[in-house]
Amino acid sequence: MPRAKSHSRENLLDSALNTFWKIGYHVVSMGDLVRETGVSRAGIYSDFDGKEDLFHACLDRYQEIVVTPAFAPVEAEGAGVDGIESYLNNLLMRFEVMGGLGRGCLVGNTLTQIPEDARETRQKLRAHCNRLTAGFHKVLTHENGGHGLLTQAEIGDLARYTMISVQGIWSYSRLTEDAAELRAASDMLIAVLKVRLRGSPQ
After folding, report:
1. Residues in contact with 173: Cβ distance below 8 Å, sequence separation at least 6, in sequence order
2. How far apart are CA 125 and CA 113, in angstroms?
3. Which end of the chain has the smaller Cβ count within 10 Å, N or C?
4. What's the whole-model pTM score?
5. Quick one: CA torsion of 161, 167, 171, 177, rounded to 10 degrees?
6. What is the pLDDT of residue 4?
7. Is the predicted pLDDT of residue 59 greater than 60, yes or no?
8. Do the beta carbons of residue 54 and residue 10 sit within 8 Å?
Protein backbone atom coordinates (compact mmCIF):
# COMPACT_ATOMS: atom_id res chain seq x y z
CA MET A 1 0.00 0.00 0.00
CA PRO A 2 1.37 3.46 -0.81
CA ARG A 3 2.13 5.40 2.31
CA ALA A 4 1.05 8.92 3.08
CA LYS A 5 3.17 12.04 3.31
CA SER A 6 5.18 10.51 6.17
CA HIS A 7 7.92 9.58 3.68
CA SER A 8 11.22 11.42 3.65
CA ARG A 9 12.38 13.12 0.47
CA GLU A 10 15.73 11.31 0.71
CA ASN A 11 14.11 7.87 0.96
CA LEU A 12 11.86 8.68 -1.96
CA LEU A 13 14.86 9.80 -4.01
CA ASP A 14 16.83 6.66 -3.21
CA SER A 15 13.91 4.37 -4.10
CA ALA A 16 13.14 6.30 -7.28
CA LEU A 17 16.83 6.32 -8.24
CA ASN A 18 16.96 2.53 -8.02
CA THR A 19 13.77 2.28 -10.07
CA PHE A 20 15.05 4.54 -12.86
CA TRP A 21 18.40 2.75 -12.82
CA LYS A 22 16.84 -0.71 -12.95
CA ILE A 23 14.03 -0.09 -15.45
CA GLY A 24 15.05 2.99 -17.44
CA TYR A 25 13.72 6.55 -17.38
CA HIS A 26 11.39 6.39 -20.38
CA VAL A 27 10.04 2.95 -19.51
CA VAL A 28 9.19 3.88 -15.91
CA SER A 29 5.64 5.08 -15.36
CA MET A 30 4.22 6.98 -12.41
CA GLY A 31 2.50 3.72 -11.48
CA ASP A 32 5.90 2.00 -11.37
CA LEU A 33 7.25 4.77 -9.13
CA VAL A 34 4.27 4.48 -6.76
CA ARG A 35 4.73 0.71 -6.55
CA GLU A 36 8.52 0.71 -6.23
CA THR A 37 8.85 3.62 -3.79
CA GLY A 38 5.77 2.92 -1.70
CA VAL A 39 4.85 6.60 -1.95
CA SER A 40 1.44 7.63 -3.27
CA ARG A 41 1.13 9.62 -6.47
CA ALA A 42 -0.01 12.59 -4.36
CA GLY A 43 3.00 12.12 -2.11
CA ILE A 44 5.37 12.18 -5.07
CA TYR A 45 3.72 15.30 -6.49
CA SER A 46 3.98 16.98 -3.08
CA ASP A 47 7.77 16.91 -3.46
CA PHE A 48 8.26 17.03 -7.24
CA ASP A 49 6.50 18.52 -10.26
CA GLY A 50 6.39 15.17 -12.03
CA LYS A 51 8.47 12.27 -13.31
CA GLU A 52 11.02 14.45 -15.11
CA ASP A 53 11.57 16.67 -12.06
CA LEU A 54 11.97 13.60 -9.86
CA PHE A 55 14.41 12.08 -12.35
CA HIS A 56 16.53 15.22 -12.41
CA ALA A 57 16.73 15.11 -8.61
CA CYS A 58 17.71 11.44 -8.88
CA LEU A 59 20.53 12.34 -11.27
CA ASP A 60 21.83 14.80 -8.66
CA ARG A 61 21.48 12.14 -5.97
CA TYR A 62 23.35 9.68 -8.22
CA GLN A 63 26.28 12.09 -8.36
CA GLU A 64 26.27 12.36 -4.59
CA ILE A 65 25.98 8.73 -3.49
CA VAL A 66 27.36 6.79 -6.48
CA VAL A 67 29.70 8.86 -8.62
CA THR A 68 31.51 10.80 -5.88
CA PRO A 69 32.70 7.75 -3.89
CA ALA A 70 33.41 5.69 -7.02
CA PHE A 71 35.33 8.47 -8.77
CA ALA A 72 37.29 9.48 -5.65
CA PRO A 73 40.55 7.76 -6.75
CA VAL A 74 40.54 9.89 -9.91
CA GLU A 75 39.58 13.15 -8.24
CA ALA A 76 42.09 12.70 -5.40
CA GLU A 77 44.79 15.36 -5.21
CA GLY A 78 47.88 14.32 -7.14
CA ALA A 79 46.25 11.25 -8.67
CA GLY A 80 47.94 9.65 -11.65
CA VAL A 81 46.97 6.89 -14.05
CA ASP A 82 46.96 4.52 -11.09
CA GLY A 83 43.93 6.47 -9.85
CA ILE A 84 42.06 5.68 -13.07
CA GLU A 85 43.13 2.06 -12.78
CA SER A 86 41.90 1.90 -9.18
CA TYR A 87 38.56 3.46 -10.16
CA LEU A 88 38.04 0.89 -12.89
CA ASN A 89 39.18 -2.00 -10.71
CA ASN A 90 36.83 -1.08 -7.87
CA LEU A 91 33.83 -1.04 -10.20
CA LEU A 92 34.89 -4.29 -11.86
CA MET A 93 35.16 -5.98 -8.47
CA ARG A 94 31.61 -4.79 -7.71
CA PHE A 95 30.50 -6.30 -11.03
CA GLU A 96 32.12 -9.61 -10.07
CA VAL A 97 30.46 -9.63 -6.65
CA MET A 98 27.09 -9.10 -8.35
CA GLY A 99 27.75 -12.13 -10.53
CA GLY A 100 27.75 -10.28 -13.84
CA LEU A 101 25.11 -8.43 -15.84
CA GLY A 102 25.49 -5.12 -14.05
CA ARG A 103 23.11 -2.18 -14.14
CA GLY A 104 25.62 -0.08 -16.03
CA CYS A 105 25.82 3.67 -15.47
CA LEU A 106 22.53 5.53 -14.93
CA VAL A 107 23.78 8.31 -17.19
CA GLY A 108 25.00 5.94 -19.88
CA ASN A 109 21.73 4.01 -19.78
CA THR A 110 19.76 7.24 -20.19
CA LEU A 111 21.86 8.64 -23.04
CA THR A 112 20.24 6.24 -25.50
CA GLN A 113 16.71 7.19 -24.41
CA ILE A 114 16.54 10.98 -24.37
CA PRO A 115 14.89 12.98 -27.16
CA GLU A 116 16.62 16.01 -28.62
CA ASP A 117 14.20 18.45 -27.00
CA ALA A 118 14.86 17.21 -23.43
CA ARG A 119 17.27 20.07 -22.85
CA GLU A 120 17.49 20.06 -19.07
CA THR A 121 17.99 16.30 -18.97
CA ARG A 122 20.66 16.51 -21.65
CA GLN A 123 22.42 19.25 -19.68
CA LYS A 124 22.55 17.06 -16.58
CA LEU A 125 23.88 14.10 -18.55
CA ARG A 126 26.45 16.37 -20.20
CA ALA A 127 27.49 17.66 -16.77
CA HIS A 128 28.22 14.08 -15.68
CA CYS A 129 30.33 13.43 -18.77
CA ASN A 130 32.12 16.74 -18.24
CA ARG A 131 32.88 15.76 -14.64
CA LEU A 132 34.47 12.49 -15.75
CA THR A 133 36.40 14.24 -18.53
CA ALA A 134 37.67 16.91 -16.12
CA GLY A 135 38.82 14.27 -13.65
CA PHE A 136 40.65 12.35 -16.33
CA HIS A 137 42.12 15.59 -17.73
CA LYS A 138 43.56 16.47 -14.32
CA VAL A 139 45.12 13.01 -13.96
CA LEU A 140 46.58 13.04 -17.46
CA THR A 141 47.97 16.55 -17.00
CA HIS A 142 49.63 15.47 -13.75
CA GLU A 143 51.15 12.38 -15.41
CA ASN A 144 52.26 14.32 -18.46
CA GLY A 145 54.17 16.74 -16.25
CA GLY A 146 56.83 14.12 -15.65
CA HIS A 147 57.35 13.28 -19.31
CA GLY A 148 55.93 16.12 -21.36
CA LEU A 149 55.05 13.94 -24.33
CA LEU A 150 51.60 15.40 -24.98
CA THR A 151 50.33 18.85 -25.88
CA GLN A 152 47.36 20.34 -24.03
CA ALA A 153 45.16 19.59 -27.05
CA GLU A 154 46.28 15.96 -27.02
CA ILE A 155 45.58 15.70 -23.29
CA GLY A 156 42.08 17.05 -23.91
CA ASP A 157 41.47 14.51 -26.67
CA LEU A 158 42.81 11.68 -24.50
CA ALA A 159 40.63 12.72 -21.56
CA ARG A 160 37.51 12.63 -23.75
CA TYR A 161 38.60 9.29 -25.21
CA THR A 162 38.96 7.93 -21.68
CA MET A 163 35.50 9.17 -20.68
CA ILE A 164 33.88 7.65 -23.76
CA SER A 165 35.76 4.37 -23.25
CA VAL A 166 34.68 4.15 -19.62
CA GLN A 167 31.04 4.85 -20.52
CA GLY A 168 31.29 2.09 -23.12
CA ILE A 169 32.65 -0.40 -20.59
CA TRP A 170 29.78 0.24 -18.17
CA SER A 171 27.21 0.09 -20.97
CA TYR A 172 28.58 -3.27 -22.11
CA SER A 173 28.40 -4.54 -18.52
CA ARG A 174 24.61 -4.71 -19.01
CA LEU A 175 25.10 -7.29 -21.76
CA THR A 176 27.90 -9.57 -20.59
CA GLU A 177 28.23 -11.90 -17.63
CA ASP A 178 31.97 -12.31 -18.26
CA ALA A 179 34.03 -9.98 -16.09
CA ALA A 180 37.12 -11.01 -18.08
CA GLU A 181 35.75 -9.15 -21.12
CA LEU A 182 35.38 -5.96 -19.11
CA ARG A 183 38.80 -6.38 -17.49
CA ALA A 184 40.40 -6.85 -20.90
CA ALA A 185 38.84 -3.58 -22.08
CA SER A 186 39.89 -1.81 -18.88
CA ASP A 187 43.46 -3.16 -19.13
CA MET A 188 43.67 -2.05 -22.76
CA LEU A 189 42.53 1.46 -21.87
CA ILE A 190 45.14 1.74 -19.12
CA ALA A 191 47.84 0.37 -21.44
CA VAL A 192 46.95 2.96 -24.09
CA LEU A 193 47.09 5.77 -21.53
CA LYS A 194 50.48 4.67 -20.24
CA VAL A 195 51.96 4.38 -23.72
CA ARG A 196 50.68 7.82 -24.71
CA LEU A 197 51.88 9.43 -21.48
CA ARG A 198 55.12 7.57 -20.87
CA GLY A 199 56.19 6.49 -24.32
CA SER A 200 56.40 2.78 -23.63
CA PRO A 201 54.38 0.07 -21.85
CA GLN A 202 54.93 0.10 -18.07
Report:
1. 95, 101, 102, 104, 182
2. 12
3. N
4. 0.90
5. 80
6. 46
7. yes
8. no
